[in-house]
């Protein structure tokens, strides 16, 4: 999952989260987040586009934290 976040590609990040969530079990993720299994499967499908709220809830259920840190000045110039 770290590789997905490092890529900065939203689709890749959503895909990686979906893979990990399915491995843990969508029923368990649904119970921990209060979201329905259907909503989770739809959000993390190939054509899905999970909201930030859904993404953060799933990350919390997976024991993953989203953090922000300043980018390296060299990266900022190339972006």
From TrEMBL:
GO molecular function, one term: DNA binding
Pfam families for this protein: dnstrm_HI1420 (PF21716)
Stretches assigned to coiled coil: none
The protein's name in its UniProt record: Probable addiction module antidote protein
Species, as recorded: Pannonibacter indicus
